[in-house]
Amino acid sequence: MTNDQMTTQQKPVTVFNSNGQSRVVLVCEHASCFIPQAFDKLGLDDAALQSHIAWDPGALAVARRLAEHLDAKLVASNVSRLVYDCNRPPSAHDAMPARSEAIDVPGNAALTQMQRQNRTARYYDPFRTCLRDVIAATRDPVIVTIHSFTPVYLGKSRAVEIGILHDTDTRLANVMAQTAGSHTPANVAINVPYGPQDGVTHTLKEHAIPGRHLNVMLEIRNDLINGSAGQKDMADCLANWLRDALAELNISVGAQCSG
């Protein structure tokens, strides 16, 4: 880890391309597997801490390149989702999961209410405030969250390669699904491998739906983005796909920031 990475990860949230002029606001809640030293690795070994239970491998690299393509601001969490999952409200049991997939997380077992409140204040609240402020400073924002998922979960293989997720607002997700074949040969599905019933649309519900901002959550199978070439290809694909989907809705990607 470089000194620059350490400095970034000491902050709970980072905004990349903070001067971006696009109306698209990108979000990467599971960008980092970093666990502050005070948590003593949450009792896990290094293999677990580098695996998908700790973060979304490849998601930040895709999101950063996508931000460059679109000239979009990108809000990313700098802490592992095992410390606090910024795509969950504080009331959610898996905001600080005691078990992830088939792995127990000893450092999250039997957390007191005070410990949960302290983590919320230290990691989630700054992330939520930062994202809220970035969205508020962008005229007519479009919220796009970037995630990755494991090809095998609880021993079962997943055929889907890109998931287009939505909550109650289906506008952008539906257009992306309808135009998928023009942009990628990947196996694409709506609300797969997760959906609102799994509690994964918190960011959309918190930051997009109340203001009726167009929004979508994109899940990419992580074997497709486990290297720089795949990350580049995926970001290039998503950039064109989003531009065309928004054009179908008579919306241009570019916009001036307010304020």
From TrEMBL:
<protein>
    <submittedName>
        <fullName>N-formylglutamate amidohydrolase</fullName>
    </submittedName>
</protein>
<dbReference type="Pfam" id="PF05013">
    <property type="entry name" value="FGase"/>
</dbReference>
<dbReference type="InterPro" id="IPR011227">
    <property type="entry name" value="UCP029730"/>
</dbReference>
<dbReference type="InterPro" id="IPR007709">
    <property type="entry name" value="N-FG_amidohydro"/>
</dbReference>
